[in-house]
Amino acid sequence: QLHSTEETKQVLKLSLTEFSLPKFYLLFGISKVKSAAVIAFRSSYRDRSFSPGSYERETFALTSLETVTEALLEIMEACMRDVPTCKWLDQWTELAQKFAFQYNPSLQPRALVVFGCISKRVSHGQIKQIIRILSKGLESCLKGPDNYNSQVLIEATVIALTKLQPLLNK
């Protein structure tokens, strides 16, 4: 049974209110709707007219992911204060690291950003791996400047390194 402090409840209420504002719809990639529920439940069982190609999908910027991740981290940290043995953040960090260092053009850039945002410590080996990923992205960009995935990977590594750099030993 979870017993939350008033401070935690306040953080949760404020976060829910903030996520419900139209300005946050853009961060979640659903800015072209009047209500988030419209897009969330559009593909319900009864609505067979919906197909993945029947609407214009918005791009989800890595900077938006950074903001959303930081907001979710704030919520998680508030809840973790009320659960002394909670390992949620450790598990999230392990998963983000796993996908950040595994080649996958769709997931790797997002995982790098999340890993950078949620990590509380970083090793020199992890930084070296991120720099290798950056190097591969740069090599790929030099081969063909129209390679969108490489540009996204470069952006993700820069965001991750920017977030992780303060965690390094001097």
Automatic annotation (TrEMBL):
Domain of life: Eukaryota
Protein name: NF1 protein
Organism annotation: Sylvietta virens (Green crombec)
